[in-house]
Design goal:
The complex is a heterodimer of chains A (about 375) and B (about 50). Chain A is mainly alpha-helical and about 375 residues long. Helix content of chain A is about 70%, strand content about 0%. Chain A has 16 helices and no strands. The longest helix of chain A has about 30 residues. Chain A is globular and about 50 Å long. Chain A starts with a helix and ends in a 9-residue tail after the last helix. Chain B is an all-alpha fold and about 50 residues long. The model of chain B has no long low-confidence stretch (mean pLDDT about 90). The chains are: A mainly alpha (about 375), B mainly alpha (about 50). Chains A and B meet through α2, α3, α8, α11 and α12 of A and α1 of B.
């Protein structure tokens, strides 16, 4: 999603820093950091700051997986898609060997089966209707898009629904994660991971050339890709696992639902040790939530520091409907697919896990369906 | 839209702070993958362990 459409000032509005929202973003970030530091958790503060940096980077670079995948599928333009691979390649250099060598660190792994494929496919449909994926939703919400605020709400709802569905879909079958370093060792695993990224890049360039389209990432995607890749490493080092987005949404939604009286004690997902702890513990004990909060406020600070904030008019009702439907599909799809473009694709591939590529291969046809559905909601296919 | 954002941010911060102050804290930020038997970022078990 273009930040130009997110944050364009209304006619006549003066350009300049939006002190109110810049102050809000910085104050909110400071409050969250203070809370975790008071708990003696400096690494949690690092996760918030890492997320903050990611929010700034994504917004300033207008780094959109959704738009770049759409441009590739509709026109063959590969620059943005390749920029996304830069992020993964940089992150992999640290994630693959450290996850294999250090017991305190782990990669993003997931079982291979129908749940992964169905989830990724549905997520792909949703991201094109919503005009943003996991990272895209976060930075555009932070950037001042009311439309994406609606997407985020339904993303959260969908992810709670997905948490209730996941055990049934996992019962359809599957095999344990396939991790390159398990077969090839830490350095062989890294070599295989980088080779897979290079192979994917080669295929993408070949498609672009065949369609007579540009395949060179522009400056924003190169610099953005490098910065985001490095920040992903920082988040990995602080949290012990690759950067993830959507589990935070699931926890937020479940906590609200629980506060409203919903009982999760009979829901299989919420009896698994990890989710059970996340639901019971402070939201600031969850790595995904920490980076999510940081990213929203980082994007907000970056947007407010350069122009009046959230001045755009609300889009038409049909567009808002697409935002809601897209969010719902992404939330449900992300739970079944073990993550979004960041957690499953970026994190998975950067960990040398085969599920990352399977996720990508399943999400792309979903994106094709989503692109075809866009005109029904008054959205362009481009 | 600005008023919507102010309302959402205020509500969110109250909810986060309230949840943090009324819930146990694990001492460090954790991911569901940190727990034994987790086979996915959400903490799902491995198919082979069912």
């Amino acid at each position: 999603m273009s930040t130009a459409s997110v944050a364009a000032p209304s006619a006549g509005a003066a350009l300049g820093i939006d002190r109110l929202f810049l102050g809000l973003a910085l104050a909110a970030t400071a409050i969250l950091i203070a809370l975790v530091l008071l708990d003696g958790q400096p690494l949690s503060a690092a996760l918030i700051l890492g997320g903050f940096g990611l929010g700034v980077a994504f917004l300033k670079a207008e780094f959109s997986y959704t738009a770049s995948w759409r441009r590739f599928l509709t026109r063959g333009e590969a620059g943005g898609l390749l920029g996304g691979l830069i992020v993964i390649a940089i992150a992999a250099v640290v994630v693959v060997p450290m996850a294999a060598l250090k017991s305190d660190f782990g990669g993003a792994i997931a079982p291979l089966g129908p749940s992964l494929i169905i989830g990724a496919f549905v997520f792909g449909i949703g991201m094109q209707l919503a005009n943003g994926c996991g990272s895209g939703t976060l930075y555009t919400v932070g950037g001042g898009s009311g439309r994406m605020l609606l997407t985020l709400f339904w993303f959260i709802v969908g992810s709670v629904a997905g948490s209730l569905s996941l055990p049934s879909f996992m019962a359809l079958g599957g095999i344990d994660p396939v991790l390159a370093s398990d077969y090839l060792g830490p350095w062989g695993g890294l070599a295989a991971t980088l080779a897979s990224i290079a192979l994917a890049a080669g295929l993408i360039v070949a498609v672009a050339k065949r369609r007579g389209a540009n395949f060179k990432p522009n400056r924003n995607y190169v610099i953005g890709g490098i910065v985001i890749g490095l920040l992903s490493i920082a988040v990995f080092l602080a949290g012990g696992h690759p950067w993830s987005v959507t589990f935070g949404f699931t926890v937020w939604g479940a906590k609200v639902a629980q506060a409203l009286g919903f009982d999760f004690s009979h829901a299989a997902f919420w009896q698994w040790p990890g989710p059970k702890h996340a639901l019971a513990d402070s939201v600031l004990s969850d790595t995904s939530s920490l980076t999510d909060f940081g990213m929203i406020f980082g994007a907000m600070a970056a947007a407010a520091a350069s122009h009046p904030y959230a001045r755009a008019a609300w889009p038409p009702l049909k567009s808002l409907l697409a935002a809601a439907v897209g969010g719902l599909l992404m939330g449900w799809g992300a739970r079944l697919g073990f993550g979004c473009n960041i957690g499953a694709f970026v994190g998975g591939v950067a960990s040398g896990s085969l599920h990352g590529w399977v996720w990508f291969a399943a999400a792309l046809p979903g994106c094709l369906i989503g692109i075809r559905l866009r005109p029904l909601f008054g959205l362009s296919k481009d | 839209m600005r008023k919507t954002y102010i309302a959402v941010i205020t509500l969110a911060l109250v909810a986060i702070i309230g949840n943090h102050l009324t819930s146990p804290s694990s001492g460090r930020a954790v991911s569901p993958e940190d727990f034994a038997g987790a086979c996915a970022p959400c903490g799902a078990p491995c198919p082979s362990k069912k």
